[in-house]
Amino acid sequence: MAFEPIVLDEIGRTLVPGYVDDEVLQPVYVGCMPKNRGVVGRHQICGGWILLKKVSETHNQLCCGMCHLGIVVPKEVDTCAKLRKWCTEEMLLRVRRSIVITKLILGT
Q1: What is the phi/psi pair of residue 46, to 5°?
Q2: Is the CB of residue 70 less than 8 Å from the CB of residue 62?
Q3: Does pLDDT of 79 surpass 70?
Q4: Which of 14, 20, 81, 83 could lock onto 44 through a cystine, CB 3.0 to 4.6 A?
């Protein structure tokens, strides 16, 4: 399951996992990037490498080196399985929020 694409958001941006030992996602510290360290796969749309970078004590960011896609995830999302689950839950939350907002705007 580790190498099955992971849909990152509701518009279909997708990560094709690779270079991940035992499915564990390891962040790289910004400014310190040894070869392949922090690379978690490729962006299916543009083909760029996706890195996992530490951006705070509580969050990491998936960053595409080609198109600059950036998705912030909690640091507890540290495996492909957890990333897949987190992305699915986030997409559902966004869809629900947009339904609520649409109903408020339309007054229904």
Answers
A1: -105, -15
A2: yes
A3: yes
A4: 14
Residue from 33, 60, 31 nearest 49 by CA: 33
Q: How far is CA 10 from CA 6, 22, 36, in A?
A: 12, 27, 28
Helix extents (H) in 1-108: 80-106
For 6-41, how does the pLDDT look when each residue is reduced to its tens digit (9 = 90+)? 888 888 888 888 755 546 676 655 444 445 457 888
* Alpha-carbon gap, residue 67 to 46, rounded angstroms: 7
pLDDT classification of 5: cutoffs 50, 70, 90: confident
d(CA 89, CA 29): 27
For residue 35, report the phi and psi dihedrals to the nearest 5 degrees: -55, 130
Main-chain dihedrals φ then ψ at residue 10, nearest 5 degrees? -70, -10
Q: What is the pTM for the complete model shown?
A: 0.73
**SS3 for 42?**
strand
Rounded Cα gap, residues 24 and 78, in angstroms: 6
